[in-house]
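Lab channel / #folding
Pinned by the channel admin:
"Please post every new chain as: sequence first, then the structure tokens as a reply. Keep commentary short and put observations after the output so the thread stays searchable."

First post following the new format, from NK:
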Amino acid sequence: MSGPLVLDLFAGPGGWGHALRVLGVREVGLEWDEWACKTRAAAGQSTIRTDVARYPVAPFAGRVRGCIVSPPCQAWSMAGKRLGLVDQPLVHQAVADLAAGRDTRAKLLTACRDPRSLLAAEPMRYLAALHQTGEPEWVLLEEVPDVLPLWRQYAQILRSWGFSTWTGILNAADYGVPQTRRRAILIASRIRTATPPEPTHARHGEPESLFGPGRARWVSMAEALGWGRTDGPVPTVCAGGGPGGGPEPFPSGSRKTLADARTRGAWKHPECRTTPPQPIRSTPRAVRPCACMAESAASCPGGGTWQWALRSNSQAHASVRPVTKPAATLFFGNRANECVWTPTPVTPARQDAPQTEAEVPPPIRITDTEAGILQSFPADYPWQGNKSQRFSQIGNAVPPLLAAHLIAPHLQRAVTRDDFVLAA
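Reply from TO:
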């Protein structure tokens, strides 16, 4: 290695890495997961496959301009047992000890309820060692919201080393990501005042005024996926299990019958009674939704309207969002966390517009391409591994568009709409 670089710890499949490539910055990622490393390699990102908790810091001394860290969130996430909250005092102790030059990780690890909890202290081991050579110039840390108190502890230590710091919760949807993903962020810099990037989007949008340029409306799933366009990605009827690899909720023959009916143009919406456009990209399993499936404002011959909605998991309290809204936070890892497109009535059809059960479209599992787009990855991002491995990587990744907005101020760059193309 030669010249300044950005060090990306727990680099995953390349959320930060893709943003850095778009911004033209040299990055080296440290990652242990085999398939995440293969995804990064396929995306052209430099990676050292290693255990971040064991890798020495010395090889990076004198070369690190920026340091980015997104520790594994499984110990803290609401999707898991959240034992990280129980272990939080031990993590705080590890951070304080590492900042003072004492490595007590081995002793503290024996007391942790979840061994992954202590990984949130690893950034301090690297930062404390690099501080001896006046590095890095800037730091960005990202995790689930419950880790915010830990980031505040980091900020206090970094301020004592001469950094300007900011900590808080940011919503990815405020930066153009078609997903309301909230994350705890720490921003630190030696050379500029640390502030969060200005939001580019808002729930309802804001017009330009004398007080600012205004903000666009949150990006909906339909807009990101290109639904309702005459080109672009489409929802896909899949044969085979979901992210967890289990059976489909109805026989695959039913899906084939549905796909064949769509191909022939014989299948009609249960409410609007209009035939959807023909499949595209020469595959019988791809079908483009018509306007009333993507937008709730359609006027249909049957007198009713309906649209696709994304159900975030199979639990009773799962978030169900229409395609006219951003997705809820996407997370995968077991069958309970599978996401499916489901038809949702917007207004009922007339009572004199009969429908049969066979005409009601079944749920459709989200594809890895669609999930990646909703994380703001490009449609052709080269995910590697089997279905479960790909979905796990996507759910754990940092949205590249959010990452770019966080990184750009440290490079004196601005992120433009053309930098990140979702549907293609």
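NK: Residues 277 and 288 are 6 Å apart (CA to CA).
TO: also worth noting, The chain is about 25% helix and 15% strand.
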